[in-house]
Amino acid sequence: MNGKSLHRDPVNGKLAGVCAGIANYFEIETWLVRIMVVSAGLLGAGFFVVLIYIALALMLEKQPYQARPQTQQQDHKLKNKPWQSGGSPSQVIDNLQREFDELEGSIQKMEAYVTSETFKVQREFNKL
């Protein structure tokens, strides 16, 4: 489908990480997969849901460390639809604004240092 393979995600999972792994594979919210599993169990397929969940928990490998999404990248992932993983537009804008404010502060500190007398003196000493 999207070049990924299906793995369990016990780090983000509640029991064995099967629902979290399925959510990662299809790039949807984990809560949505959990609601579908619980709904299927309550609507009469309880035995089969438990059987399939246990089978997947035993058959699927744990998600490799490198394949786990990084939080820095997830901060800027925008949801196109409510069930997709990522942040709402206002959350993404707030995160970007906070990061730009931090970067602006760092740039102002660098600019203040480069234009200071200390920098000029150190540059002259380095030329010797």
Task: Explain what this protein looks like in three dimensions.
The protein has helices spanning 18-26, 30-59, 71-74, 89-114, 117-127. With 128 residues, the chain is mainly α. The chain folds into two domains: 1-70, no CATH class; 88-128. The longest helix is centred in the middle third of the chain and has 30 residues, at 30-59. The radius of gyration is 24 Å and the shape is elongated. The termini are far apart. Residues 70-74 have low confidence and may be disordered.
Quick rundown:
This protein has 128 residues and is mainly alpha-helical. It contains 5 helices and no strands.
Question: Can you give keywords for this protein?
Answer:
2 domains; single chain; elongated; 128 residues
Give the topology, please.
Elements: H1 18-26, H2 30-59, H3 71-74, H4 89-114, H5 117-127
The helix content is: 55-70%
**Which structural class fits the helix and strand makeup?**
mainly alpha
Whole-number tally of structural domains = 2
Beta-strand portion reads under 5%
The low-confidence parts are 70-74
Task: Determine the N-to-C terminus distance.
Answer: 62 Å
Overall mean confidence score, pLDDT: 81
* 3D shape: elongated
Radius of gyration: 24 Å
Counting H and I runs of at least 4 residues, what is the number of helices? 5
Describe the biggest sheet? none
Helix-strand sequence: HHHHH
Strand tally = 0
